[in-house]
Model the fold of this input.
Amino acid sequence: MKLFNRRSPLWACAALALSTPAFANDGYHLWLGEPRGEAASATVELAGDSPTLQIAADELRRNLPTLDRPVMLARASDPALAGLPIDTRALGTEGYRVQSATIGGKAVTLVTGATDTAILYGAFALLRHLNSGGDPAKIELASAPETKLRILNHWDNLDGVVERGYSGQSLWDWWVLPDFKDPRYADYARANASLGINGTVLNNVNAKSDSLTAPYIAKAAALADVFRPYGIKVYLSARFSAPIELGGLKTADPRDPAVAAWWKAKADEIYRAIPDFGGFLVKANSEGQPGPRDYGASHGDGANMLAAAVKPHGGIVMWRAFVYADTDPDDRAKQAYTEFKPLDGTFADNVLVQVKNGAIDFQPREPFHPLFGAMPKTPLIAEFQITKEYLGFATHLAYLGPMFEEVLDAQTGVRRGETVASVVTGKADRHTLSGMAGVANIGRDRDWSGGTFNQANWYVFGRLAWDPTLSSEEIAREWAAQTYGNDPVIIDTVVKMMMRSREAVVDYTGPLGLAHLFASGHHYGPGPWVSDLGRPEWNPVYYHRADKNGIGFDRTRTGSNAVAQYAPSIAKRYADPKTTPPEELLWFHHLPWDYKMPGGNTLWEELVRRYDRGVAEVAAMRAQWATLKPKIDAERWTKTDVFLGVQQREALWWRDASLAYWMSLNGLKLPAGSAAPQHSLEHYKQVRFAYPPGNPQ
Amino acid sequence: MKLFNRRSPLWACAALALSTPAFANDGYHLWLGEPRGEAASATVELAGDSPTLQIAADELRRNLPTLDRPVMLARASDPALAGLPIDTRALGTEGYRVQSATIGGKAVTLVTGATDTAILYGAFALLRHLNSGGDPAKIELASAPETKLRILNHWDNLDGVVERGYSGQSLWDWWVLPDFKDPRYADYARANASLGINGTVLNNVNAKSDSLTAPYIAKAAALADVFRPYGIKVYLSARFSAPIELGGLKTADPRDPAVAAWWKAKADEIYRAIPDFGGFLVKANSEGQPGPRDYGASHGDGANMLAAAVKPHGGIVMWRAFVYADTDPDDRAKQAYTEFKPLDGTFADNVLVQVKNGAIDFQPREPFHPLFGAMPKTPLIAEFQITKEYLGFATHLAYLGPMFEEVLDAQTGVRRGETVASVVTGKADRHTLSGMAGVANIGRDRDWSGGTFNQANWYVFGRLAWDPTLSSEEIAREWAAQTYGNDPVIIDTVVKMMMRSREAVVDYTGPLGLAHLFASGHHYGPGPWVSDLGRPEWNPVYYHRADKNGIGFDRTRTGSNAVAQYAPSIAKRYADPKTTPPEELLWFHHLPWDYKMPGGNTLWEELVRRYDRGVAEVAAMRAQWATLKPKIDAERWTKTDVFLGVQQREALWWRDASLAYWMSLNGLKLPAGSAAPQHSLEHYKQVRFAYPPGNPQ
Done:
């Protein structure tokens, strides 16, 4: 206890920081970091006093490293800026510019933009620049978002359970809203604003109509009041049958004038409480949700009816394309395209169709969804899953940046240079509306996302939604520096771990384009043998189609011909196993176990090699993390270390269970040097979890 | 921002504390307070180095105000203490003594006891003394617990939902246990140890047998490892039918040797993982739970069979007396006594019968349970509900100290001076086993209990479990000083609010001995009109029996004769409305609306007066709290202020709805000066909550 006997107040300060768990880093501050004590010197001047500008100033005062000049926050239209050589033309309403300037004879760092929200984004950009190693002497930042809607989708049920949530219950404490506004709501908004996220859908797409009742509208309005100065709009998932459940109508047929009138009145009611309400997200006729197809109406009829209700208030509708029917015997991967492609051009101008990154369901790897590029007349909002439903929940380390990037960078083949990103930004087809949606991994856990590395997925989603052409590795570097400190050893190690982590998960769960091999319901752990679920396309055997002779789903002309949904150049590449990338091989092709892979391995040998590689990668990540023990605070280091231990054990479980099953089908031996599974196939089939999280009953 | 420009490190420190939400008081530190920076001077010397002593030393270093001498922690048996005039005879294994002493020529403050846990309790007692205004120059503390078992009952389901929990989901993150031990578990143990709580039942009495499977035993063992150095044992609620569900047996009949053998093997398995496992808590044949009565065996047969299984390991069984059957037409208030009284003397010596404070179910006021005093051959553990199922959840301010005290101080009438407390401590009948159980109000909310004042109920339970003869007002003072700071204005105001708060809830929910008038299922808000529930004794109309002529439940000889379950002197007092305290009047008597009350009011006038008083009390509490705004940190002040606003609105709702209903029956007018209900009775009957917390479906 020597430290405590030093009488200098500075030592008392240090002792304060060192001696108590309260000051350990519990991850609450995310990438924004623990507030700096010495931020003292950041002098901030405001031109204006809106709540948004006050927030920007507070952020800078709290977290800005020492600068040699004051920071000035001013709108581009401020008279003080008139005549200065500051180019704000390309910034739009949300873009910012941060640069040195001399204003009124005084040298300042100017943060500017057309709106206060743009200035707030600029303040966060300045913090990001300086806290991730940017040169304080060279501050010249300018950026405008490439998408208009940057939105989190909360799959939060009104009872507090988060579907596919692994970080505690819903952040929204509906019971005490609207009276009590937890201070945490502002911290949530702050974190989102730091990334440029400008919208949040509060409730699950598997919606209850209660969310549209007066008490819940008042609760949502209280949240909207907290979020507003951070530039974040509130949206709601709408249950299509609400006119029946709440309105007492006999039908929810969108062509029925009484139904349209009910929604119009409901929208009016919402806008009275939330004047800047964003609009509705709808999951219709999918996995049991009601929708227009129940009445023989089309998705367009449904979307346009809702769009008309919010249109007078400036609202929008995001209509999900994630549909598939057990009554349709066709390949599940084809059904969204089949249903939506013909509707292109029929949607109102305030409707976006929300398309998942792949055609099945957020697998560790999927080829990009064939709807991207196929609906040029409709703005498409890309839906990514930030929460790791299929990638080991909160426990397994998997940085999703490379996965998001892989999809965004994919060439649609429709036009030269057209990528998914260019469709999503609306540039490909000159849409005004555009956006990216991310299924949130945020809950009431102290560290928000159930572990520090999960925070990186929230971060990378937000950054890519702002600009889908950013590099996921650069984003990882930014995140690591801000989260763990700007130490090159930490950053290099952490970024290396992150950049290989998602491929490791692919390798140990479903290499070579295999998909949907997960245990039933909760999707944690292997279940490639599952064949007894109610609908054929819910069973892993539907997806891998393995038997004694081979494995994989034939989606070429000899099979479901899903490849034909892609533009001809892409379809051609996927039609032939030789030109299909190995990573997507068994997604498109059913091949014999002894199929020769590039490099000379048989398919079976290559499959085993990749399972083994996945397991080895996790061991390597764990060893890398161990080297950082002296550099990272104990609380965050330990949690990740424990989780990596779990992942190491479970990667082996995945590999062993999967190989035991494949061997039970193909009768093959493992290649030399590859260890036999630890247990019998029967053992793995018996694994059960009593109360898996994120799986409401 | 002037503060920030002061360059002294001390100012930097202050700025750190003032400028950031992170350092706002979010209630996490409970009554233990924010760690003191200046604790520097607390020199602590240890004789020994057990984890428990280390914890004691760390607590003192963290939170002790400056003393003029070092603190020494040493066991009573330490040679250094030999020959000193320190009386440790009456301390037992858990009692402590803290006093000045000269050891080895050095003046120290000595903290001693027979065990390291006793020393830990002594360290917390020293902190409590000094942090609640005790004289640092006069330290002479000695205390030994009056009960052996001081236990929290967590009604936590394995899926994370806490039955009757209003402060977030279960603290136990079963999914990542046993791998990840949240640092919060140690903070939970620390808070409990500061009160002397020495046991915790991890899972709900409405138990699932999964809690007894190998994976969950390993998870419980991980928690036990964290809690052990804090002197806290782990217990489990046992589902009586587990031998069928887990063991594949055909029966759970306690007289079947195979059933007994299954439990013995299960106990052995648990003790291999948790050598100091405390034992089982059982809810049997109550509200749908399985039990020995399913097989015609008695509660004694069931309890003794389980007791035999844990006996070789030193374990105990707590068997709940909370039983009532819809097949029994007798007054529900009588049924536990009827069932258990005849079993007195039949229980094994490691069984305690757990008896709720009253005969119905944790109402805002109930007369003490007639089983206290009626089972002299059986140790009875008293069960109190810390969580406010019937007192406004986490939102309404109700300090339960006076309620606990009222019950503990009640004379049983069996012997002169025999109180419920003397039964509970085992003194009345010279039992070795004794205890108090509290249904926890702890969840994963940052402030643990959903609001600062709810923390006081955890606190007062622990302090009274240690010594049931303590004054609830003194405990309130202690708590207030430690929680909000040792400022007489704060303490006086807060204690005044607390001491009247429970009576206010009684007044606006059920004055004059009315009970169980709550809305169905969730028990939030009024439902005195409810008469349609499946079992008669679940309906409020069963309890109030009001009609045009009168109100109240006749439990005298002309009614259910429940009074006869009390000792004759008590029974005699309750048999006559004139000698029954007004607070319990309608619990025991059905009286005409115009019955003359002491003081001259009619029963109706007095009832209305008390409803009005309850509403006025809440307004007064809110006004008192407002005066403390300048003295209390914004975060905690605001939450309580908002909650008091809710309570004020809802006290009026309770009063108006109740009066509207009574008037619909009795046709009477309100006394002059008493305002008419704001809405129609029909309005109040229509109130519904979509997703009330704490009410698992």
